[in-house]
Design brief:
Order of helices and strands: EEEHEEEEHEHHH
Number of helices: 5
Distance between the termini: 19 Å
Strand order of the largest sheet: 1-2-3-4
Shape: elongated
Strand content: 25-35%
Number of strands: 8
Largest sheet: 4 strands, antiparallel
Structural class: alpha+beta
Length: about 170
Amino acid sequence: MSSSIRKVKTTDLELKDRLVSINRVTKVTKGGRHFSFAAIVVVGNENGIVGYGLGKANEVTTAIAKGVEDAKKNLIKVPVFKGTVPHEQVSKFGGAQVFLKPASGGTGVKAGGAMRAVLESVGIKDVLAKSKGSSNPHNLVKATMVALLEMRDAYTISNQRGIPMEKVFNG
């Protein structure tokens, strides 16, 4: 089963950006140490659209700005059902493994660090999430994005199978 990538155009979207991680990188040269910064940023409209980007520069603010621009080029559409995810999902990227589970209203976003930034940017209000394996923010963000990309709502399933909505639930 291959999931289709749901790309989104950035025209007239109100996107909010969240800084997930900033990393100082050192390059040792003949003349001494040269410091630069790498920032991973998540943007989203908190209504089903999210993207992530990586920016590298000599200054922190420039790295963040580059990350935001990169994130706007990688936006995807995610199904959000009553403020939570439609179904359970396990996903991996590199050494990071994430588990997302729908939660009832009022639960909140039970997720840590990098996963929380992605889930809040997409507009999910109630979810239970667990990260296993690597805690590397880059791989956690990418694994969470893969999990969200593999999410399918009932409308999408009925279209793919060519059956009415009632038969999706009744079998």
